[in-house]
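User: I'm curious whether this sequence folds into something compact or stays loose and floppy. Could you predict its structure so I can see for myself?
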Amino acid sequence: MARTKAAAPSTSTSSEKARSPSPDPADRPLGPLAVTVPASEREEVKVNNANLTELKNACDDAVKRFLSRPELFKQIYLHTDVRLALGWLSVFVAAGTAFYGYKVDFEKSKPVVTIGLIVYILLTVISTLYAYFIEGDTIFVGKRKTFSKRIITERITLSSSTTPVSKSSPSPSYSVSLHYVRSTNGGKTLLGRGRTKGAAPYTKFFDEKGVMNQEAFEKWVGGLVETSMDGKAA
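Assistant: Here's the prediction. I'll summarize afterward.
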């Protein structure tokens, strides 16, 4: 009686690929929702509910405090540094021009004073254009480097604005636009990228006395950040 020889199990390439873990979860660093802020580190934030500027500034400050925690991102102050540099330079030009005009006779000082005035105006215009066209509504730019078998670099940019009352929005809202990039190999290899937008009424985060619910706000912002980190659009 012939015996049938059992076939040796074969290992297919497809099954190996199925068992291979996707690199995305391993490469995904810690998200904001995994960070717990101790109550002892919080200070009460209270604003005038009728003042939209105060409401927005309070939210902007809360974003910076939360996302710049040691576990998350290191804030980049490039826009602030540029505006400060242009501002101080214009002050020095104005002071130098005024001092020269004071020390030198009027007729002799006119050419230098005129040049100083033109430079001052140019610096002021450049600062205004930079704030409007380049910085825009950006309130936070952060960067983080982590190591998971390789060096991973993340960069996050967050802009905000106030959405006024309309038919579709019965109360003013805090609107956020977020751009996130995760890369390695010195930025040459893109691991992930996401853009997220979100809006929520100020009444969601501030009570009738103007006290801010920071935990609820951080959870909302953290959710938007993690959506971008996952490469999703919202």
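Summary: The chain is about 45% helix and 20% strand. The beta strands are 74-75, 138-147, 151-163, 173-184, 189-201.
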